[in-house]
Amino acid sequence: MSAAHPLSEPRVTPDGSEILYIATPRTAAPEPSSIFAIPIGGGTPRLVLKDLGISAVACARLPSTVCLYSVSKGNIRETFLFDVRSGKSTGSPQIDAEGFWSLSPDGSQRAFVAVGSKQGTIQLRSTSSGKTRDLVVKGWNGLMHIDWSADGKSLLVGNHESDSALLKVTLDGKASVLLRSSNFIAYAVPSPDGRLLAIMEASTTKNVWQIQDF
User: Which of 33, 153, 167, 205 falls 20 to 30 Å from 176 in CA-CA distance?
Assistant: First the structure.
């Protein structure tokens, strides 16, 4: 499958038993992307759902069972709630500009950053009501990739004004620098216990960094 369908966005299901991922066709003609789930110990993948232009997927952690996926349509994203077992989506999608989002560990809200080199604001949007509040990151612009910390009390955000930086942003907008690099820092995914980070850094040579007790 991987030769014809590049795989991306690995995310753990709420109960931790499976890994979700997106398989995207290489063809130029519009074809549905797929979300698959594979047992975390290995095994045969199962198809969860198909849709055109799937660009992101994420789940909360138990006791929440909230799972979301997004599709890109031109310069907007539609984000749907779905059942990880049946693949059925529920309710109307939430509509955003093109950008990056992350689901809080308790499933209550999404943190969203719109695409744009001057972005200094994170939107926090309720997954149930859609109510949104702006979180202004004091003293920083150029925000992009975003992930929640394991405890849900802060956000891990890539900053790309000049050199790249990985920021830890508290929910009152205060930012501190965890890592600086001349390469492009993208996602920073925390371990469930919050002690370690897996950081994606793009360069001519690929590296994954680990930060302990951040």
Answer: 205
Closest CA to 132 of 83, 169, 97: 97
Alpha-carbon torsion angle 44, 21, 84, 45, nearest 10? -10
Q: What is the pLDDT of the chain when averaged over all its residues? A: 89
**Mind listing the pLDDT tens digit for each residue in 26-82?**
776 678 999 999 999 999 999 999 999 999 999 999 999 999 999 998 889 999 999
Per the listing, tokens 């797929």 go with 34
pLDDT of 211 over the 70 cut: no
User: Is the CB of residue 159 less than 8 Å from the CB of residue 176?
Assistant: no
Query: Which residues does 106 contact at the CB level (< 8 Å), separation at least 6?
Result: 60, 61, 64, 152
